[in-house]
Amino acid sequence: MTPTIQIELERKILYGLSCEWETALWVLNHDYRERMIKPLFSLRDLKSTWGSWSGRLGEIRLSRRLVMDHPWYAVKEVLLHEMAHQLAEQVLDATDARPHGEAFMKACHLLRANPKASGSYRLLMDPMHRDAEDPNDRILIRIKKLFALAQSRNLHEAEAAMLKAHELIAKYNIDRMTLERKRNYFSIFLTKPALRQSRDIYHLANLIQTFYFVQGIWVPAYVVEKGKMGRVLEITGTRQNIAMAGYVYDFVNRFIEMEWDGYNRRKRLNRHRKTDFSVGIIEGFRHKLTGINGKKGHPSDTRDLVTIEDRHLKEYVAYKYPRTASFSRAAAGQDPGVIEDGMEIGKKLILHRGISEKKSGKKPLIGYSSFFQ
User: Fold this and answer.
1) What is the spatial distance between Cα 90 and Cα 314, in angstroms, rounded to a whole number?
2) Among candidates 209, 211, 218, 213, which has minimal Cα distance to 241?
3) 10-residue block means of pLDDT along the chain (373 residues)?
4) Sign of the Cα pseudo-torsion (189, 194, 195, 197, in order)
5) Residue 113 domain-assigned?
6) How far apart are CA 67 and CA 74, in angstroms?
7) How many CB atoms lie within 10 A of CB 172?
8) Which residue range is the domain that position 160 belongs to?
């Protein structure tokens, strides 16, 4: 990267931090917002921490390595942590000599910040990949074995294994909800921040929220390459469910890419029809999971299982985002024929342990593949 490009990129990132700081304040009450003074922002070659707050200089410093080498949700997580230090000092009049004392913990609660997101904190994707599940959990072991069986060349065997795996995913989560055991929830960006998201992504987001025990919400996020605030799909859930939902998101998108290549070579359509084709595949896969297509061997109780709500997850998301609004998008200019073709292909989609590099000609799925390792 040339010095000129580096300087321009850092300028955009610093502006993004300013935008994110302003957006994060809206979770606070009016009095607290008014008393927060907008700080300076800087990028530093920090060695032992991801960020720091200097009350004397009125400055939030973030690690250059953090913003250059990690996803934006990790940058936001550290930014919120440093904002909590600022809130504790400027608004809550922290008198505790400990940097992570009582006032700081209260500030973290008010800002929905992670009190651990500093120092030697392992950014979320790192512990999520390594600790996604208990290696001794029998149900998770069976789920992974079933997804391995779903690679079978016998289509009936593969489909039965995949559907049984989904039945166990539901059972796994419902058992834990029934026991009312405390669960730790985490949030992660599932999509890239963008000024506009395509219609098929909304369909895929809905499918993942319906079947994989995570809750999705579109949140403001800075789009570095555009230098503007956009939106991103954030999912919240347990580490296990985030890993599973993320894997499904990657898998379905890769499947769509492969199927579209062949379909479009035959049809020679414009790029706008790819969205219709993608929506069709996603909805076809939904029909398979809900049994709408009437296939024999579908677990009879899966539909009932997935309708049970995780009350604690709902409460956590309500705490994290106390002010939300619903919105809808008009779907104009669709091609019903392309959607129908996509649905027929989607009904044949069999989720399994991975798409091989040899078969797809592309890199294997890596984002959440540790769920199956």
Assistant:
1) 32
2) 213
3) 87 96 95 96 92 94 93 92 95 79 93 83 57 60 85 88 88 80 83 92 94 92 94 91 90 94 88 92 93 45 55 90 74 85 94 55 44 51
4) negative
5) yes
6) 8
7) 20
8) 138-372
